[in-house]
Inverse folding.
């Protein structure tokens, strides 16, 4: 049998716990909006040329999605991931290569690739770095 005092205590505990997810969602939503993204990849020691991309990304509910180029075409890149309330993010990049002179191992155009980006966002600016294989830097500026 459940006593009234137990129900009152349980209800009070649940009500006290409720604001935390709402606060976390509000914190993540502070990054919502359109961001200008700059990607700069340095030359690689194996003779791979440097390149830069400029594109837009959208953050909705703390989740980022951005694309450069046309999906399915050479030189396409998509970045996706959730920005945590503290501004940290582990983003995923997926794309298709273009000119072999700019790709690791000089693979042919339209070869799929993927890597991760460690990023940090704060206010209206963010920065990130490619984690695997090549020195690439991301800059994010909120519009």
């Amino acid at each position: 049998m459940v006593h009234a005092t137990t129900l009152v205590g349980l209800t009070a505990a649940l009500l006290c716990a409720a604001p935390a997810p709402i606060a976390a969602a509000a914190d993540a939503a502070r990054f919502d909006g359109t961001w200008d993204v700059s990607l700069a990849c340095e030359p690689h020691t194996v003779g791979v040329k440097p390149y830069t991309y400029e594109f837009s990304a959208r953050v909705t509910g703390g989740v980022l999605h951005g694309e450069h180029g046309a999906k399915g075409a050479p030189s396409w890149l998509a970045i996706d991931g959730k920005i945590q309330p503290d501004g940290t993010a582990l983003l995923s990049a997926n794309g298709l290569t273009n000119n072999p002179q700019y790709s690791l191992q000089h693979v042919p155009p339209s070869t799929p690739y993927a890597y991760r980006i460690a990023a940090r966002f704060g206010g209206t600016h963010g920065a990130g770095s490619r984690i695997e294989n090549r020195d690439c830097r991301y800059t994010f500026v909120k519009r």
About this structure: Confidence is low (pLDDT under 50) at residues 1-20.
